[in-house]
Design brief:
The complex is a heterodimer. Chain A is mainly alpha-helical. Chain A folds into two domains: 159 residues, no CATH class; 46 residues, no CATH class. Chain A is built from twelve helices and no strands. The longest helix of chain A has 30 residues. The N terminus of chain A is likely disordered. By secondary structure, chain B is an all-alpha fold. Chain B has a domain of 31 residues. Chain B is built from four helices and no strands. In chain B, α3 packs antiparallel against α4. Chain B is extended and about 60 Å long. The two termini of chain B are 32 Å apart. Classes of the chains: A mainly alpha, B mainly alpha.
Chain lengths: 247, 108
């Protein structure tokens, strides 16, 4: 016991290249928390402000655990959209997880089914991006799986703490503060890095235009915007890109 | 809001989201996402984000049509410029909210 305590104490002071992948993952979550926690608070606040009670708002945060889709679902529920429209629109927002799931899957080849399912539940934009950076360093699968779980569990805790704070505050903030506008600002921050590509800009403009067009029945505008924006970009990719690459 | 409605949405959305996340990690670790689908997904994100931003910047009237709201439009444009220059979500939110409140006070 004494020996173990004595040998582990200096180990904590050694540089991060010798730390365990779990601890490296938890450390990697700390700078990201600056972005994740305000987003969690906004999502919690927007649910409470839309009239969901504490249990409903918190369930959205921990069962669904997907900020953008939570905001969209709250927005659609508040505007009285049918269940199937809210569900399909929220799912479209979350379809990117399929891309992330494919990208990080190699980390979990040696993991048990339970570990894989836990990893899948915790998958978000940041856990995908940061783990991908680790995979680029040619780390073996057990390392990146442990890094991913350390990172994701830490982010999950940060998200829930921030959500609870947001839910509790959200019901007290007066509507005149227009606090829901934070969602638009947050999404502006998220979309800007995506707009490097010309066709992504086309998809974004088409999506915005359709969202503002006269209302479709069943609040289908957001869903139509996503599908039509992506379809237009795909079509243009075929017609524009071929001559350019052929030249 | 109706309780059954809200809980149906929460549980069903959680289920489809979990299945989407599990797709490759749990069920098909040895498969790759088809290129066509990967390209389509890369465009879905900007399209839907822009659509959500648009509905916030041009808030719908009770009839459901988009309306011009100068403080929101001004704040959004300024926030966009900040996001483009700094790539900082925090700076974007702080500048955007301060701009919104200032413009709302100025323009009534």
């Amino acid at each position: 016991m004494m020996r173990a305590a004595m040998t582990s104490a200096p180990a904590q002071r050694t540089p991060p290249n010798t730390t365990s992948p779990w601890r490296a993952g938890v450390s990697a979550s700390l700078p990201v928390a600056l972005g994740v926690m305000p987003f969690g608070a906004v999502c919690g606040a927007s649910a409470a402000a839309a009239g969901l009670d504490f249990n409903e708002s918190f369930a959205l945060s921990w069962i669904v655990f997907a900020g953008s889709a939570q905001v969209v679902a709250v927005h659609l529920m508040a505007s009285g959209a049918p269940v199937w429209v809210t569900l399909l629109t929220g799912w479209l927002v979350n379809l990117r997880f399929m891309m992330y799931s494919a990208a990080v899957a190699p980390c979990f080849r040696d993991s048990t089914r339970a570990q894989r399912t836990l990893a899948a539940y915790l998958l978000v934009d940041q856990s995908f991006a940061l783990t991908l950076a680790q995979m680029a360093d040619k780390r073996p699968p057990p390392y990146c799986a442990a890094f991913y779980l350390g990172l994701s569990i830490a982010m999950w805790v940060q998200w829930q703490v921030a959500s609870i704070a947001g839910i509790l505050l959200g019901s007290f903030i007066p509507p005149s503060w227009s606090i829901e506008f934070v969602v638009a600002l947050l999404f502006i921050g998220l979309i800007v890095p995506l707009l490097q590509h010309r066709l992504a800009r086309v998809a974004a403009l088409a999506g915005a235009a359709i969202a503002l067009a006269p209302q479709l029945p069943f609040r289908l505008n957001l869903m139509a915007a996503a599908l039509a924006g992506a379809a237009l970009a795909m079509v243009l990719e075929r017609t524009w890109m071929k001559p350019t690459s052929g030249r | 809001m109706d309780e059954t409605y809200v809980w149906t949405v929460i549980i069903a959305l959680a289920a489809v989201t979990l299945l989407t996340r599990m797709s490759f990690i749990t069920f098909a670790a040895h498969l790759e996402l088809p290129l066509l689908l990967r390209r389509a997904l890369a465009y879905v994100a900007p399209a839907i984000l822009a659509a959500i931003i648009a509905t916030q910047v041009f808030p719908p009237t009770p009839a459901g049509n988009a309306s011009l709201d100068l403080p929101r439009l001004g704040a959004a444009l300024l926030a966009f410029a900040v996001a483009w220059r700094t790539r900082s979500n925090m700076a974007t939110i702080v500048v955007g909210m301060l701009a919104l409140w200032s413009l709302q006070a100025l323009l009534g």
